[in-house]
Amino acid sequence: MDRHDHTPEELAALELYHQLLNLSADNGDRALLLTLRLPNGNYVGDIWLSRPDVEALTDSSVGLAMVSAAYTQQQPEPLLDVDDTDINDLIAETEAYLSDGGLA
Known about the structure:
By secondary structure, the chain is α+β, with helices and mostly antiparallel strands. It contains three helices and two strands. The protein has one domain (8-99). The chain has a two-stranded antiparallel ribbon. The mean pLDDT is 84.
C-alpha cells in the first residue's frame, strides 16, 4: 500500500469529517446528509445527521460566528430592514399569485 502524506487541508477536512460523524448515532434519524469535499473537489465523505444534531450544529455555528467576529472585530452581515409595509406587500403578492392558481 502506498503511503500518502496528507496536506494540512486534507487533515483538517478529515478531522472535521470525523467530528461530524460522531455527532449522530446511526439510528435511522436522518434529517440531513452532508457531503464534505476539499477545495479541489476531492471527496472526503458523507455524514448523516439527525434533526436534533442539525439544530445543535446550527446553533453552535451561530455562536462560533459571533465569537469569531468578536475576536477579529468583523461585523456580521446586517439583518434585512423589513417593516410592516414590506410584509404586507409580500402577503398581497403571495395571495395574488395563489389566487391565479400559482401560475406566473
